[in-house]
Please model this.
Amino acid sequence: MSRSHHHSEKPYSVGDVRIGHSHDNEWSGTDTVCQSRAFLGFTVKDLGRQSGELTRMRAGDWLAIRGPFGTAFPDMNAGVRLILVSGGIGSTPMHMVAREARHKLGDGIRIEAIMGFRNIAESHYIPRMESVCDYLRITTDDGSLGTAGFPTGLLPELLDNTHDGQTILLTCGPEPMMAPVLQIAVDSKIECYAAMERYLPCSVAVCGLCMVGDRLTCIDGPVMEGDWLLQQDDFGSAHNP
Model:
């Protein structure tokens, strides 16, 4: 199957960073890329050797960057009710989507979000989300911030609120969280999309380790339709290393 690589210019795309002047083809996959005419930003979580090296870099250190690749969330239109559900570092693309939607549409869009974290120490992006959301709830696994539990516990009540226009739900986070979030949305007949967080060693459709169903997360994703994902046997239980 032939696949064409395209460069995305929207929040949440796949990007890779090479550290130092090595030519060993070892790339460090990052979680999120957001770009504008003057800014390119990566959010990196320290999970291993290369991501750890990235977090310790200083101004002037050498990096090679390629991308961004892959799919992005759909464009939002005026009158839409946008619901964002995130878990952990998945809050990064959710903030970027909310920020762009608010910048583009102003008060013409309603943005509601639920952010889930393991604990208060791992929470982030909350003040930024507060500045662009009409409604925001926080959950933590241990109850150290916001409501104890998971985002799925607050979602049904949120969806019960009526809205005259179209509702779209976007989610990003661990798959065991996203699967029930998408199921709730599909059961409520709400259009929904998820940004996948599979391990992306190559990011160019070579290794095949990021497969979901018959799709490759690196080029067919990371954003995929919620109803399609729920039909895949290998979606909903994967954990990043």
